[in-house]
What we know:
The complex is a heterodimer.
Chain A: H1 4-9, H2 13-39, H3 46-96, H4 104-126, H5 129-159, H6 165-198
Helix pairs in contact in A: 2-3, 3-4, 3-5
Chain B: H1 9-28, E1 42-48, E2 51-56, E3 68-71, H2 89-95, E4 100-104, H3 117-136, E5 141-146, H4 148-159, E6 164-170, H5 182-188, H6 192-199, H7 204-212, H8 216-229, H9 234-247, H10 255-267, E7 276-278, E8 281-283, E9 292-297, H11 305-308, H12 310-314, E10 320-325, H13 336-351
Parallel strand pairs in B: 3-4, 3-5, 5-6, 6-9, 9-10
Antiparallel strand pairs in B: 1-2, 2-4, 7-8
Helix pairs in contact in B: 3-4, 6-10
Amino acid sequence: MESKAEAQKKPDLKETADYFKHLSLFWTDMAYLISSKPSALTSAGPMRKFTMQTKKLANEMIESNEDLIEFNNRLTEYYKQLSDTWNEAQKRFNTKVPEIPNDVEQIESSKRVWIDIFENAFTQLFDSEKFGENFGKLISSELELSKHWNNMIAVLLEAVNVPTKNDLNEVYQELHLLRKRVSKLEKSEKKAVVEHNGK
Amino acid sequence: MENELKIDPILLEEFLKFNKNLIEAPKMVPAMDEINLEMTPFDVAYSEDKMRLLHFNSPVQKQHKIPIIIVYALINRYYILDIHPQKSWIKNLLNQGFDVYLIDWGTPTNIDKFLGFDDYVNGYIDNCVDFVCDEADVEKVTLQGYCTGGTLATVYSALHPNKVKNLIATAPVIDGRKDTTVVGNLAKHMDVDKMVETIGNMPPEFMYYVFSVLKPFEQGLEKYIHFFRNIHDKNYVDNFLRVEKWLNDTPSIPGELFRQWIKDVYQENLLIQDKMYVGRKLVSLKNITMPIFIQVAVGDHLVSPECSMPLYYAVGAEDKTLRIYPTGHVGMIASSFSQKKVLSELGQWLSERSK
Lengths: 199, 355
């Protein structure tokens, strides 16, 4: 077991990340305060918008590093679960088939046993609560990383007045609602024609 | 030498033969894009956005008045139902004298990410049903749904019972909590809101991952060893490539639809409890009073029988049939077994109810 003294010696990753986050935010704040006056002259160009958003960029970068740590932890656990299951299944196979097979029939039958044992072991793993939970969190941390990348790219796009993902989503949603309204109108018009002809 | 390693000469021969097959394979086997599926001819009877309603040309005289609309699943493509002339679900129904339509969902793109259950059920399916009723001059149709299409057809029948003469649910996803497959386990632990918010539509790559953890050694390894061993068997290779082409061809799923699917069907299990809302209307399975034929497969590792069978007990219909077949998810719809057993039973049941 790890002693208290040893545990105290280990650097706290969260604390280190928080320190760098603070440090970076402090300097980006300062850089913004100092540079915002002259850059105001170029308010129509990309530099003004970009400097206003550099703080956001730094923030996203730091937070994505935090999520990268979570992603790595989940990925390590994912591969640990796979390798543990593999080792366990191999042990089970070794007890069932202790001799190295040497003819076609033996090889065929031991291959069948190998597949059955491994298939069962891995299906059991994939069906388990611990796998499902870790896999869910692994995907979730990967999505957090995607979110940060999206946000960082949005800063650059906004600086040059190019539509961001959020802008496009607004358009897609508007189009979706319009399509629905048109379809509804078409249906009611068709119904009215049928009723009119029926009369 | 005492410890000399003895190798069975047949084993050596097998090994060399396998290596020879590996080298010869590209010369003997067509690439997946080169495969001609020899599909049954069809016309696009109606289309809306990316969705198409296919109407198959029948080689025989139509014998039943009520047309069938097949609601295909959201995963992979519809051509599994017409994968081979001798194993074609569609051709078999046509030969039995049925008039067959099929809904192909197409390939959703980012613009479709807000499409949900309401759009699919009360929009696309309802419009297709209206179109077919007009064209065939009938008031009701037979609706058949396969896999996730079975769920959509079930929801539609519960919301529009006056337009459905018969319902056929083939391996439908109904009771998410009872689903014992790996798919169910992954779905229950998914942060689906974050997923849809971040990536929009569900990408095919994610589906391929999910498929890869289903029978990973049998499907991911043994199947391919078997393929290379049998590359001289033309029939085997032909069937193998057709199904592989289908397995590796799946469109993305619209984000909003995927969100509702995972939450309402798998995580909160609302459908079987009659608590699911689609387009602000409560879906009550008790409203399914038309004749219903439910088909499940014992060896189904995508939709477990326990997940489909509760539909039999939940519907309000008095005329209901449940058939359990000793096959798998694909075997039930695209195999010699399905031609001989599944389709002949279905045809008999349906012909009595299609007058």
